[in-house]
């Protein structure tokens, strides 16, 4: 998921940016002091191809604290599996700094794999407020937000302009346009990320949240999904597949597949992360100059996105924890955060950048994205998040494929999540 996309995807691209910025008043050539030395940094695969050269910036200015990048698969699920396998090795772990999906923080902290961090070492007050919550567990800071994200509705503004209609604000408007307008132009109506992987958990959570529901409460201790709102949200998606305005091909889409379908001119509407807007607007795209972005719709107005992105955490067994914290502070500094956006098309966590006139001209979706992030909700927090997500994926996919009614799927979700929560 491109979040990290989601992202991710939601996931997860770690950017180490080439600037001469030095944190905490330290000299750029420092290294070798207490808690300082070389590091390894683990992240999902670098999908943009810019990470390697940029890493040289830190290494050039911090020769005693050189960072070796370890790229794991670009799938969030596979990255999670490889990270957790490594972390279970305790002091034999190869990773010092981890770029983790925002929803893994609780799991990793509860397992004792990542260490608490001092709040006063990082500029948390300068971040968009919701992102800080993704880095906490049981009232303590266990990571530092690095990239944020929120889902947006991308649409073909040229097609809607010809029809004289605005972009949809509600599910009813989205459904109507996907049913009636898309076929006139040979387009599929609407797609998200509906393959059973982390992206489906995100899409399902957004549907439930937008309808006013929730999945878990009290950091996973309480199951709250058995509600009319959850039935409405999952029912909306299932009806779309059943009636055809969500193409059946979308049941195999992750972030990249759905982006390509939209970018190649095969969809009227797409739910995806902002990176898809940037890619679809680039030269060579079949829809360049023809797309817009608005908040995700809900039953009666704007819906609720899942808060995506990634956090930076320090392995409990990191060899050089002070260098690890220095690297994290560097990556979350304003200069580097600007580069995260301009070079990586990834949403930064620094609030001031969303009001920068130059950046808004270059990335016109920024005001919409800021509003979406501020209104976003996290995925259900749980120390067993990987199992929670697998349950959601499996059950919701059965509802989308027609193997189970939305009502039965919600009841099953409640039962299976309760079993996970009480382990």
From TrEMBL:
The entry's keywords: Signal, Transport
Domain of life from the UniProt record: Bacteria
Xref: SUPFAM superfamilies: Periplasmic binding protein-like II (SSF53850)
Pfam families linked to this entry: SBP_bac_1
Coiled-coil features, chain-numbered ranges: none
Record family assignment: Belongs to the bacterial solute-binding protein 1 family.
Name of the molecule in the record: ABC transporter substrate-binding protein
Organism: Streptomyces tropicalis
């Amino acid at each position: 998921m491109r979040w990290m996309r989601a992202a991710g995807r939601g996931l997860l691209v770690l950017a180490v940016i080439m600037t001469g910025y030095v944190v905490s008043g330290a000299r750029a050539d420092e290294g070798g002091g207490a808690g300082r030395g070389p590091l390894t940094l683990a992240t999902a695969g670098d999908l943009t191809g810019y990470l390697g050269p940029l890493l040289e910036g830190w290494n050039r200015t911090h020769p005693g604290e050189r960072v070796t990048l370890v790229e794991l698969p670009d799938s969030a699920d596979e990255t999670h599996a490889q990270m957790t396998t490594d972390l279970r090795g305790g002091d034999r772990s190869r990773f010092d700094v981890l770029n983790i999906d925002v929803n893994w923080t609780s799991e990793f902290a509860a397992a004792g794999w990542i260490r608490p961090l001092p709040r006063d070492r990082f500029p948390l007050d300068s971040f968009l407020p919701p992102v800080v919550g993704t880095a906490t567990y049981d009232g303590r800071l266990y990571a530092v937000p690095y990239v944020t994200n929120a889902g947006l509705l991308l649409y073909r503004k040229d097609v809607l302009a010809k029809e004289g209609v605005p972009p949809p604000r509600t599910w009813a408007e989205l459904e109507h346009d996907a049913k009636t307008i898309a076929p006139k132009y040979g387009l599929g109506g609407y797609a998200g990320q509906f393959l059973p992987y982390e992206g489906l958990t995100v899409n399902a959570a957004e549907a439930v949240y937008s309808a006013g529901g929730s999945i878990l409460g009290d950091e996973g201790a309480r199951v709250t999904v058995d509600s009319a709102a959850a039935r409405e949200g999952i029912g909306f998606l299932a009806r779309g597949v059943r009636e055809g305005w969500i193409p059946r091909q979308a049941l195999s889409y992750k972030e990249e597949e759905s982006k390509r379908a939209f970018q190649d001119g095969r969809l009227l509407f797409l739910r995806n992360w902002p990176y898809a807007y940037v890619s679809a607007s680039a030269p060579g795209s079949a829809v360049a100059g023809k797309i817009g972005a608005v908040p995700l719709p809900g039953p009666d107005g704007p819906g609720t996105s899942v808060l995506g992105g990634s956090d930076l955490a320090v392995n409990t067994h990191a060899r050089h924890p002070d260098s690890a914290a220095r690297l994290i502070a560097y990556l979350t500094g304003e200069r580097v955060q600007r580069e995260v956006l301009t070079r990586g098309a990834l949403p930064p966590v620094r609030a001031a950048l969303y009001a920068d006139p130059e950046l808004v001209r270059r990335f016109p979706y920024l005001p919409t994205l800021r509003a979406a992030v501020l209104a976003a909700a996290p995925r259900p927090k749980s120390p067993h998040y990987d199992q929670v997500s697998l349950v959601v994926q499996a059950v919701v996919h059965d509802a989308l494929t027609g193997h189970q009614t939305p009502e039965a799927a919600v009841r099953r979700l409640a039962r299976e999540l309760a079993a996970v929560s009480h382990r």
